[in-house]
Structures are given as C-alpha cells and as structure tokens.
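Renewal narrative, Specific Aim 1. Our central claim is that a sequence can be written position by position from structural information alone. The example that follows is taken directly from our test logs and has not been curated for this report. It begins with the structure tokens describing the chain, in the order in which they were read.
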C-alpha cells in the first residue's frame, strides 16, 4: 500500500473519449458539460443565456453587418426573413425559399448587399436602401457594345450533337433543334448563337422554341453547331456556392455542372463574359480528378479554397488571371453536400465540417506550399454527432457547433495558451441554430413548442431568466496516473477556486465562508476540500466530480486528490 497525491492544474484538452484514457500526456476530463476552459487551463461555468425575443417559428440565423453601428440578425424562416437589431424586430422580407431548402442556402456579403444561392433557385440579393431592407433577383450585366447578356455560357454534354436551324415567321424567331432536346424548363433561360445572346420566350415542342434577341441579326442559311446555353438557368439549375475573392464574384458547383468554378471580371461582379482573356476578365475552369467533384463550399482566404464532396482544393495564383490558374487538390477529406455549414476563419485557418462529421482545420504547411486538414476533434469525436449549424466568436475564442439532437459542442480554442478543449452545452430545451453578431453569440432555442432568440451573456447565471442549468465536470480515470494500481482509496479531494460562490464535490455541497454570498463580494478564492472514504476497484470510474446547479459563479484552478493505492 502506497500513498499518492495527484494534482490536475490544466484541462486544456477538454472532454476526451475513452480511447485516450490511458494517455499520460492528456490534460482533460472524462465529461465536461456547461463549463469552459479558460486561459491557464482552468474551468469556468459557461455564461447564461439572455432572452432576446420570441420567434414565430424555427429559424436559421445569419449575421448581416452594414457598419460597426449597424449590425443585424437574419432569422431565415419559411418564405421570409425576419430581421432583428439586438432585441428589436426591424422588418419582414418575403422570400421564395420554403423551410426545406433553407439549410442548403449559401451566402456572401459585400458592403450593404448579401447574395444568396441555392442550386434550385435563381440567386437573390438582399440589400439595404433608404432605411429599408429589400430583396431582388441577381441580374447579370449586359455588354454596352453588343447588348449581350454577360452570363457564363457553355456547351453541356447532352447537347454536343444538337444543331439548330434559325427561322423567323411573322417576326417571331424560332430555334429548331435537330433532335428532341428542348423542355419547358428552357423558358426563361438564355442561349448564345451567331454572336448574340437570346432569351427563350416560349416552348413549342421538343424541337421548337421561340427566342428573343436584343439586337439585329442575320439568319444563317445552314444549321449551326456552334451554340451554347447559359451555365445557370431554370433547366440547368443555379450555383450552389458563392464567395468574393480578389475582387471577383465566384460561383461554384452549378446543378448541371457540379465541378465548375466561374469567376467574374475584377470589379465587375455581374460580368462573366470571358472576353479575350485579358487579366481582369472572367475565368472558368472545371475540377478534374479520378472522382466526380461536387463543389460544396468556396472560401476566400490566403488562396481561393474549394471544398468539394471528395476533397479540398486551392487556387494559389496572386493575382488570379485567365492565363494563370494554378489549381491543386491538397487533401481528400470531403464536405457534406446536403447542408451548408459555413467554414469559419480562426487564427488564419479554415475550420470546416467534413462529410464524416469531423471538424477539420485547413492550413498551410510550414513551407506554405501544401494544405493539411487536421482533425480538430480527434480527442472528442464522440461529441460531434450530426452538426446542423456552426459559428465562431473571435472575442472569447469559442467555436459553437449545434447538433441535430439539440445539444451543442463547444470548442475553446486558443493556440497561444495551448487550449483545444471540447465540451458540451445543454439547456432546458434544444439548440437549433447559432450565429455570432459583433461580440455576441446568438442561438435559437426551442423551449416546449416555442422558439426563442437568445444570446450568451457573462453576467447571467441562468438561461432565459427562468431556466437553471447544471455545470458538471468529471476527472479522468486514474489509469492515466501511471500507478497501475489494483485498488485505490481516495481520502481527500481539494479544489482550488477563484471568485467562486458555489461548489459541489462528488455531489456534496462545500461550505464556503458566509461573507462570499453578499452582493458586494466577488466570491471565495482558495482551497475547498472534502474528506472521502471508499475503495474503488474499477479504475475506469472518474475519481472526482465537480458540479453546481446554483445560479452563482464557479471557477476552478486545480483539483488535487489524496489517497492510497495497492499494486
């Protein structure tokens, strides 16, 4: 029988899975709920939730910033966007998007406009004008010289053998296809032929459509084979991803061309005419590999990062021009295509949700040449079940990942202090969405049958004024202690706390000095202990538990256990 003292001064790895219980270099916990790991590696009870407003239904949250003094939250719902400024409802904007497609909507913002894309819907622009939010269709510009629409045109594989005969009868122009090709969905789309862009006006038959041209033209005598369709149309679908990069608007992954990337003119974000290939003109390329690439997400970082269903690509040219497109597939992790989980920029790295549900970190290697996609949740993969939303608060360095079961995995991530600690947040209800707005992180919470917009506030110790929550931490089993003991008897547990007014050790309330409970007291700082009697033969069990349900502050600096063991 020998005596031992074990002090845990840091929990920088957060909650870890059972696979790592025997790793002596792990500084973590068996279980961490409603706690955060703070600078120095200690634990602090998470902030409470402050109620902002009740919502009329579930919503997906998106932040929209016009200036430092004008920041808004977009609550995207069935057929509408409800806009809030802090706790105040501002305006309703009607949209064409039902609830079923909202999770897949992608967006990008530039100045006072936000562009939304979805593969089944034409892109739309939300903008702020004269104190009112408005929404309209995204429109491609027209050439001032020819009047041609400056939308990207291309030849799809199923049209390669189709020729068109152009006729005019009674002032109506017809495009007659050499075989059954046209559909009702061609109406409203655009074609390019004989140097002109054409709007499809009506469907006559599978071989006949009527079209409209803005300018004059000469009908060729013979059928033409050199014609193209717009890359985006009711028939071919629309872009699925979007970003701005090097002052170009970038579309990716059109429904009928999932591996395509289209970049606008520099500074001309509605102009996708390739022109003569000048440096500032539009660019188009397709991702090619052994596997079919579906562009899932675009990220403008140090390079243009392209996250596909099969891997992670990057275009490294600076500046990017039609003559210099250096594109390379760096890793083969893959992203989900059924939902948009916006990649987050953290300390110059891109954090994204992989299609296998892992949280990955895309960053350049030490030579600055190749990207790695490191697994950020390697120690706590059990916490990442089915992500449905994600946001990052750079002020408190927390990554929030909402799960489909209503819980939330939270990563305290501060590389300067060596902290990469996952834990879980729970509340009396279910989290459904999150966004960061200024220095606040907002969430949608379902409580009963109602939905509420709430935000985390360091001054709160309850959720939404009425709901208490339990903060709980379990220590790692003593298998990590290196004793290889057969029997353990713990005799004492000492917890060093700071500015604390509540503490339970192994479910036993620790009595703190009476004066710490006065309103003007910041709380108790020092060592609090309980004596423990008991023998544990199951060394997988946690040696200690710290918790509280009180609406009071709790901060833990270290935990020390005293006891005896037998080998």
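The sequence written for that structure reads:
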């Amino acid at each position: 029988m020998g005596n031992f003292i074990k002090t845990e001064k840091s929990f920088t790895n957060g909650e870890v899975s059972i696979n790592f219980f025997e790793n002596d270099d792990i500084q973590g916990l068996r279980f961490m709920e409603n706690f955060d790991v703070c600078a120095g590696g200690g634990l602090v009870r998470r902030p409470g939730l402050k109620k902002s407003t009740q919502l009329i239904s579930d919503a997906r949250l998106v932040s929209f910033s016009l200036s430092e003094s004008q920041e808004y939250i977009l609550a995207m719902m069935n057929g509408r966007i409800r806009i809030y400024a802090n706790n105040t409802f501002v305006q309703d904007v009607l949209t064409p998007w039902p609830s079923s497609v909202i999770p897949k909507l992608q967006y990008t913002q530039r100045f006072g406009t936000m562009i939304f894309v979805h593969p089944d819907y034409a892109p739309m622009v939300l903008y702020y004008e004269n104190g009112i939010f408005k929404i309209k269709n995204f429109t491609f510009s027209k050439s001032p010289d020819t009047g041609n629409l400056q939308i990207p045109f291309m030849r799809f594989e199923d049209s390669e053998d189709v020729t068109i005969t152009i006729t005019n009868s009674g002032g109506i122009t017809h495009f007659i296809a050499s075989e059954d090709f046209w559909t009702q969905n061609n109406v409203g789309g655009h074609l390019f032929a004989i140097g002109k862009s054409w709007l499809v006006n009506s469907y006559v038959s599978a071989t006949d459509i009527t079209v409209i041209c803005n300018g004059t033209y000469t009908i060729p005598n013979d059928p033409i084979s050199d014609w193209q369709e717009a890359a985006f149309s009711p028939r071919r679908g629309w872009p699925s991803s979007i970003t701005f990069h090097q002052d170009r608007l970038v579309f990716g992954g059109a429904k009928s061309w999932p591996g395509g990337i289209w970049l606008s003119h520099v500074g001309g974000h509605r102009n996708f005419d390739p022109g003569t290939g000048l440096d500032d003109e539009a660019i188009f390329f397709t991702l090619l590999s052994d596997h079919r690439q579906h562009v899932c997400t675009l990220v403008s970082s140090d390079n243009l990062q392209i996250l596909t269903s099969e891997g992670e690509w990057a275009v490294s040219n600076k500046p990017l021009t039609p003559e210099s497109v250096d594109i390379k597939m760096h890793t083969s992790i893959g992203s989900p295509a059924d939902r948009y989980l916006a990649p987050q920029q953290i300390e110059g790295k891109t954090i994204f949700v992989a299609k296998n549900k892992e949280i990955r970190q895309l960053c350049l290697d030490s030579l600055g040449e190749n990207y790695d996609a490191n697994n950020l949740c390697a120690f706590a993969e059990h916490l990442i079940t089915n992500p449905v939303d994600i946001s990052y608060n750079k002020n408190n360095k927390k990554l929030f990942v909402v799960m489909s079961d209503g819980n939330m995995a939270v990563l305290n991530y501060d590389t300067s202090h060596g902290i990469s600690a996952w834990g879980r947040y729970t509340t009396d209800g279910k989290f459904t969405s999150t966004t960061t707005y200024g220095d606040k992180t907002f969430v949608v919470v379902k409580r009963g049958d109602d939905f509420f917009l709430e935000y985390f506030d360091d001054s709160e110790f309850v959720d939404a004024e009425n709901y208490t929550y339990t903060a709980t931490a379990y220590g790692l089993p003593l298998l990590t202690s290196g004793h290889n003991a057969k029997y353990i008897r713990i005799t004492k547990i000492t917890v060093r706390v700071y500015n604390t007014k509540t503490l339970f050790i192994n479910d036993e309330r620790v009595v703190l000095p009476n004066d710490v409970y006065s309103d003007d007291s910041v709380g108790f700082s020092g060592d609090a202990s309980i004596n423990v009697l008991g023998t544990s033969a199951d060394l997988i069990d946690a040696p200690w538990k710290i918790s509280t349900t009180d609406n009071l502050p709790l901060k833990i600096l270290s935990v020390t256990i005293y006891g005896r063991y037998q080998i």
